[in-house]
Amino acid sequence: MEHGRARGWMIGWAIAQGAALWALHGLLPKGDAAVLWPLYAVVLAVPPTLQLLAAHRARRLLWVHAAALAMVFAAAAAYAGHASLGENRGRAAMALGVLLSCSWFVLLPFAEQRLASGTWARDYARLFATAWRHAFQLLLAGLFAGLFWALLFLLAGLFKVLGVSLFLDTFTSRPFVYMATPMAFSMGLSLYAAREEALAGFWRSMLQVLGWLLPLACLIAVLFLVALPVRGLAPLWKTGHATALMLGLMAWLVFLFNVAWSDGRAESQRFGPGLQRFCAAGLLAMPVYAALCAYALGLRVAQYGWSADRVWAALAVALMAVYAVGYAVAALRRGAPWMALARRVNVAAAWLAVALALLTCTPVLDPARIAVASQLARLQAQRVDVQAFDFRYLRWDAGRAGRAALEQLAQEQSHPQAAQIREQAQAAQQDTHRYARGRGTPVWTAETLRARLQPFPADAAPDAAWLEFLLTQLRGNQLSLTCTEAAPCPVLRIDLDGDGQAEQVLLSGYASQVFARDGAQWRTVGRLQGNLRHVQGARAGQWVEQGVQTQPPRWHDLVIGGERYSVRETD
Predict the structure, then answer these.
(1) By C-alpha distance, which of 439, 459, 432, 331 is closest to 386?
(2) Cα 228 → chain centroid
(3) Of 363, 400, 483, 554, whose CA is between 20 and 30 Å from 63?
(4) Are strands 563-565 and 558-560 parallel, antiparallel or unpaired?
(5) How far apart are CA 499 and CA 119, in angstroms?
(6) Whole-angstrom distance, CA of residue 162 vs CA of residue 428
(7) In this predicted model, what pLDDT tens digit does every residue of 360-382 receive, in sequence order?
(8) pTM (2 d.p.)
């Protein structure tokens, strides 16, 4: 009877969640992210919370916890929505979803213990069991929902073969998708609750098996640390992702230790004294890895400043350092049970992880805001060349903070290269596509274009109207040039059609084109064909200086039925 009432509670919240998501979908095209994202955060987080804590549905404290969770998540989502812009909104939404999902999962066992015993983390064994039960329950519910949809599409596909599209149209309609998915997920949750005793034995057996990988992970950690003095740090730094590799190793050590150590009780220990000492040696290596990660990250920050990725890496290093130092201290302490101090380390690290995750959704630890401030400071201090500064990052990836920085740079006056900064910032503001300009591509102006062209004859300065036409083509991404000031592109003023009026021939490798005047306007009349490697790069000017002449074709074109045919001579 209890399972039946809990199932009704779960299905009721699934219906409410589906209806809310359906309603929110209609607001997506016109809604403000600072308003919509908090609503989505509440709708996605609160119903699963109430479903997983259905055993305490009669408690007033459950509603207090749910309301507190809703307010915190809504505030974080509101800031993230406000700080994002259309250009980076997809990535920002994904990052927010990951952060809030992880925070929700970490907080849920604490909330359940508070409801069950009145304390947040006093009973570590219960906390451990609850966390893994929730993980397995959510995994099973997700699998159930996935199989549910697979069977529905199988049904729709079979009838589609018979010419009946009713099922496919129904299953792909928005109301059905929004209502059926939460319902299937809640059914998966309730089925686990009804068979919890049998399923709990399965996930405990799975953890027993996985726990035996801990000695292998410790062996890897110790061996690599022993090899470092022999080989030196240089090969590690050359990888370019040394911090990520060492963080990955520490994350595996933390995960496998907790799987093997289980709830920390003496009767739960599966390793004998010898293996315990060996695993302790591996855990003692973790502070060294944390220090190496901090050192490597510090070198990158000192050299290149903060970026959003480096902010995330710093937060990960800080969290792993708590685990590393805590586990090392626990490994050095004598007494039974083994690693008893790890209980407090795990609890502290869990709360720290949630705090850091939520703080990134505030101005305090917003990675984009920190990265923008750091890069602007480096530019103002002349520690980075203007040409190397990534204006496109401010335009497309840094959200509202990047947009504000571009507006500031577009009005820059104090920097020695202020004019160039203003030009680059204004060009970035005008970009309409993320990949419209590559990093290091010049901002095309009449001056930069003239500096990259070499007229032939030398006294034949390019026509001003032609230069303006060329600028329009370049800015509209209709023309791509490889010209540089060191290797300018030759521009020939030559009469190619014998009409007494010179054309302009721009030699730029495979982008070589011919331009002709049409009255007062210029237009592109064709492209050069042939071995264009000779007219690319620094060699182009050398070939032109050896002499240029025109030569009429030996064979006239043939016109048959209004179609023109050219003769291409065989070798």
Answers:
(1) 439
(2) 31
(3) 363
(4) antiparallel
(5) 94
(6) 55
(7) 999 999 999 999 999 999 999 99
(8) 0.77
